[in-house]
């Protein structure tokens, strides 16, 4: 199976290719520039040599002699050797050569352009002559009166110019090689760092991984919040946004304190401490949070917080507890009813019929009195059912629960769920408070509605609260029942604050505590 290239490998190959092309282009440009510079330097050199020879008095006198070649040939060759040019030709105005590196060509016409020099100018050209292609210049030789008595041509072959360029080739090659090696080393270091960061994955693998991870993060039913080592929220999935009350378009790539998160969730994220299944209040939700530090190859990457909505589960648990309490109460009442029934039957058998009737009717009247009181005062059926169930539960636990005769709720002034949260948790707290207290164990409930607010007051004969306990009773985590509790009164506080109401704890007359909640009725 052919191994797919990783992103780092592809990037390295691409960088090497690009750098090679850039260096090759730069080298080619440098060679062309050097060649152009060499041509220009050759032109300047032959022009300077030609003009120097043309101004020499020796050349002017020799051109007027009877045998110019005898005087000029040695002179021209010595100058050619000294200047390292390829040819110096001194000629007559009619092109007849007086000097040449090849003696056999002396006396033959000069091959090249001379018209410009005969007109008094300088001819510069690249021309293929007897020595091959060369860069040459032709200048006039003037007598004392200014007349042109001859011409001087000096040239350097193109082959000689190229040889000079080849002498520079090792330096150019060394510079090119160094540039390639340096660029390749930089590309290799960059690809190595990228390989570590991408764990050697290829583009298709990373694309597939992103698609799968993104699909999973959006599909899971648990909220997920990832915070990096700098305290910035790096990731939050859809369920996390929903549970923490953030809209879908809220950007999360910012610090924890910059997001409008619930106070307890923000405090947990900021603390970075590890925890498992810790209750966290978020608005009217009870969330179960688990947080742990994430590490990779010994490096701390940040923390991961998972959230589960515990509200519905807690509501179901509360209902189950109520049902269990009712079941136990019914079982106890069944035993009591059986005992009373046997008592009534025995009294009838003994002929004490009137006493039997009185005993039976008293028990029925007592039970019916509580039912009539609750149902008559509270037309909200869910609240009435809750208090009747709590009354049975209290009776099973040896607690006398009474509903204040001033209680009155007509209709649904508040949503049933919120009202049940407040009343149910206050009653549960009171039942827990008096369960371990010495007799008499009493809980009194007042629920009264007027035009502006709903008043809920629950009094108990328990041990009461110290001022410090009263101040912190409605905060999450405050409890006298051990770990895993301390949520009920905190939920009451959240409902109260959402409606803009108030809550307070005061001592009861004769001992115990009175918890009062006032909920404004929405207009």
Automatic annotation (TrEMBL):
The lineage of its organism: Bacteria, Bacillati, Actinomycetota, Actinomycetes, Micromonosporales. It is a multi-pass membrane protein. The keyword DNA damage does not apply. Its main location: membrane. Its EC number is 2.7.13.3. Residues 209-279 form the PAS domain. InterPro entries: HATPase_C_sf, HATPase_dom, His_kinase_dom, PAS, PAS-like_dom_sf, PAS_fold, sCache_3, Sensor-like_sf. One of its GO terms (cellular component) is plasma membrane. The keyword Transferase applies. Gene3D superfamilies: Histidine kinase-like ATPase, C-terminal domain, PAS domain. It is an enzyme of class 2 (transferase). It comes from the Bacteria. One of its GO terms (molecular function) is ATP binding. PROSITE patterns: HIS_KIN, PAS. Keywords: ATP-binding, Cell membrane, Kinase, Membrane, Nucleotide-binding, Phosphoprotein, Transferase, Transmembrane, Transmembrane helix, Two-component regulatory system. This is histidine kinase. It catalyses: ATP + protein L-histidine = ADP + protein N-phospho-L-histidine.
């Amino acid at each position: 199976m052919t191994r797919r290239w990783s992103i780092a490998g592809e990037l390295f190959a691409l960088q090497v290719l690009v750098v090679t092309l850039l260096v090759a282009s730069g080298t080619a440009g440098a060679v062309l520039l050097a060649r152009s510079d060499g041509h220009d330097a050759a032109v300047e050199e032959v022009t300077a040599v030609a003009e120097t020879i043309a101004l020499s008095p020796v050349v002017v006198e020799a051109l007027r002699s009877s045998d110019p070649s005898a005087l000029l040939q040695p002179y021209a060759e010595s100058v050619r050797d000294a200047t390292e040019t390829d040819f110096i030709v001194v000629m007559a105005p009619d092109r007849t050569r007086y000097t040449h590196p090849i003696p056999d060509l002396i006396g033959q016409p000069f091959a090249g352009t001379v018209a410009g020099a005969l007109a008094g100018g300088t001819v510069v050209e690249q021309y293929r002559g007897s020595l091959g292609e060369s860069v040459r210049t032709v200048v006039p030789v003037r007598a004392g009166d200014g007349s042109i008595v001859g011409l001087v041509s000096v040239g350097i072959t193109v082959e000689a110019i190229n040889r000079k360029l080849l002498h520079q080739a090792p330096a150019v090659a060394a510079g090119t090689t160094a540039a390639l090696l340096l660029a390749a080393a930089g590309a290799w270091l960059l690809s190595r760092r990228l390989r570590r960061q991408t764990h050697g994955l290829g583009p298709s693998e990373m694309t597939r991984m992103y698609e799968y991870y993104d699909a999973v993060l959006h599909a899971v039913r648990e909220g997920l919040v990832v915070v990096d080592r700098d305290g910035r929220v790096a990731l939050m999935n859809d369920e996390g946004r929903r549970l923490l009350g953030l809209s879908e378009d809220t950007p999360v790539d910012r610090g924890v304190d910059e997001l409008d998160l619930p106070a307890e969730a923000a405090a947990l994220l900021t603390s970075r401490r590890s925890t498992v299944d810790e209750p966290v209040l978020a608005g009217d939700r009870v969330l179960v949070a688990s947080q742990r530090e994430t590490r990779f190859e010994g490096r701390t990457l940040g923390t991961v917080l998972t959230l589960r909505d515990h509200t519905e589960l807690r509501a179901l648990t509360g209902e189950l507890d109520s049902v269990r309490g009712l079941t136990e109460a019914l079982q106890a009442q069944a035993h009591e009813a059986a005992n009373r029934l046997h008592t009534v039957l025995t009294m009838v058998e003994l002929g004490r019929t009137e006493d039997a009737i009185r005993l039976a009717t008293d028990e029925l009247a007592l039970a019916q009195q509580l039912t009539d009181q609750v149902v008559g005062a509270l037309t909200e059926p869910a609240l009435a059912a809750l208090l009747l169930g709590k009354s049975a539960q209290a009776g099973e636990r040896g607690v006398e629960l009474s509903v204040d005769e001033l209680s009155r709720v007509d209709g649904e002034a508040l949503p049933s769920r919120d009202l049940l949260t407040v009343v149910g948790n206050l009653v549960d707290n009171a039942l827990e408070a008096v369960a371990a207290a010495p007799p008499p164990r009493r809980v009194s409930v007042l629920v009264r509605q007027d035009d502006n607010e709903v008043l809920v007051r629950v009094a108990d004969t328990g041990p009461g609260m110290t001022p410090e306990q009263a101040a912190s009773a409605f905060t999450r985590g405050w409890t006298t029942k051990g770990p895993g509790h301390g949520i009920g009164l905190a939920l009451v506080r959240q409902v109260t604050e959402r409606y803009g109401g108030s809550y307070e704890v005061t001592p009861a007359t004769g001992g115990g505590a009175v918890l009062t909640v006032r909920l404004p009725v929405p207009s």
